[in-house]
Amino acid sequence: MVKIVITTGGTGGHIYPALSVAKEFQKRGHEVTFVGSSSRMEKDLVPKFGIKFIGLNIRPGKSIKNIISILFLILHCIKYISRENPDVIIGFGNYISFPMICAAFIKRKKIYLQEQNASIGMTNKLFYRFAEKVFLAFNSTFEELPIKFQNKFKVTGNPLREEIYKINKQEEREKLKVSPDEKILVITGGSLGAKSINEAVAKYWDELENKKGLRIYWATGTKNYEDILKDLEIKNVNHVVKPYFDNLINVMAAADLIICRAGALTISEIIQLEKPSILIPYNSVKVGQYENAMILKEAGGALIYNDKEVDEAIETALEILESENILHKMGNNVKNLKTNNATKTIVDTIEIWRNN
Question: In the chain, which residues fall in CATH 3.40.50.2000?
């Protein structure tokens, strides 16, 4: 049995790929410990999967207090490595992974990194030179890498939930009782919702609802759901408006077109499901959603609009849904971006070091 430490946290975009890899290692009989934040979502999520969790009291920011705190956390992680002697440490980005990756570097442990976004995040940027291998979600990331380090990088795609590789569009449409001549439009802004998308959908609701042969699945996010439902009159029982869909992957699989943000996991799921999309990236440069969205746009599989253009995005969606040829062409273009099962590729690659 091999001891593996996985470290990341903060957002689902970091945590879920890490969990996919952790579960695959467990399935193969290895011991996995997940190191994250003691105050973010991973503290509750990770133990649910039967994975040992260690929480660090880490906070973002460059204040003197936070910097001193991080130094103490690095020492704490060094002591953990000395005591437990893990065989490998895998970082999935975010500032939360910094103390453990830094400690692994100091202790000369084998380090592997995974980057979910098109642009490399700060922690991965700091440590990729010292990693055995860095797993990338997208080919475009190579453009920002020095040539002398490119042999350290491998494009695998993002690790996704195992069930996505087995989903069938027709079967999912049958479960939803969708007729062959119906089109499905999925609209989502993530678990918290996207104000600009929600406002535009509400504004166009009558036109959307009255569109013949169209069925809508709209995830408003938990923040906005009550307010939206209060002002919304849903006349067609086939339309579904919820805060969030627990089976969102299944609903996306049945969709003809998706309107959404451009988080790294969302982009990877769209690619795996071969879906045409209209993307409204979150406008913070730090998040890197625009670069993620450009991957699909440049492939011819998506259109991009900003938060001020969501009305136009809705109108374009209605036009695209009228054309089977456009939907088919966009879907085929997305298909060209698909990779193999990233989770298994990453675990297979890391397992090789045991024989070296």
Answer: 3-157+340-355, 163-335
User: What three-state secondary structure class fits 252?
Assistant: helix
**CA–CA dist 311, 192 (Å, integer):** 20
Select from 2.60.40.150, 3.40.50.880, 3.40.50.300, 3.40.50.2000 the CATH code of 3-157+340-355.
3.40.50.2000
62 pLDDT tier (thresholds 50, 70, 90): confident
In the predicted structure, residue 356 carries a pLDDT above the cut 60: no
State the pLDDT at residue 272: 97
Count how many Cα atoms sit within 13 Å of the Cα of residue 199 in the half-sphere of its side chain. Answer: 9
DSSP assignments along 148-175, one per residue: GGGGGEEE------GGGGG--HHHHHHH
The CATH code for residues 163-335 is 3.40.50.2000
Task: Answer whether 0.85 is exceeded by the pTM.
Answer: yes
CA distance 209 to 16: 34
The predicted model gives 222-247 an average pLDDT of 87
Instruction: Show Cβ contacts of residue 104 under 8 Å, excluding neighbours closer than 6 positions.
Output: 5, 77, 81, 89, 110, 111
Q: Measuring CA to CA, how many Å separate 172 from each of 175, 178, 243, 250?
A: 5, 9, 21, 6
| Each residue's pLDDT tens digit, 120-165 | 999 999 999 999 999 999 999 988 889 999 999 999 999 999 999 9
Number of other residues whose CB lies within 10 A of the CB of residue 70:
18
d(C-alpha 32, C-alpha 10), whole Å: 19
